[in-house]
Amino acid sequence: MTPIDIALAEAAAAAARGEVPVGAVVTDASGAVLAQAGNEVEARCDPTAHAEILALRAATARIGSPRLPDCTLTVTLEPCPMCAQAASFFRVKRIAFGAYDPKGGGVEHGARIFAASSCHHVPEVVGGLRETACAALLRDFFAARR
Q: Which of 20, 36, 114, 117 has its CA 20 to 30 A from that of 14?
């Protein structure tokens, strides 16, 4: 499975738990999975328990370093400003995401964290991976709750 496929599986599992369906995966330079997570905001009663944050924390714990300079963060949704800034602090080499988030995104939309002069580390960014599947998972999740 590719990282975006793993992230989609994590997002689907999050949806099944009643969480907003976002999944994230951190891979090393060889493509090996270091960590993967889905949103756990509701389960942890923690608004910072986004999939990206959980996966980044688990990856640094696994390698024993606070930085991930040769790693890629793959996520099903454009990271929000909090997660984009965290990815910068974790020093990830690349962010790859699926669906764009015009309302809450922090990379290509909204705060555009990496364009700010205060951003000390700017990763490579690739958007639109499996965009249709990632967006459909979110759309279906919210449609079922309306």
A: 114
Write down the catalytic residue from 52, 78, 108, 131. Answer: 52
Task: Identify the DSSP state of 79.
Answer: P
Coil, strand or helix at 37: strand
Q: What predicted TM-score, i.e. pTM, was given to this entire model? A: 0.97
The amino acid occupying position 113 is I
pLDDT per position as a tens digit, 100-122: 999 999 999 999 999 999 999 99
- Does residue 40 have an active-site annotation? no
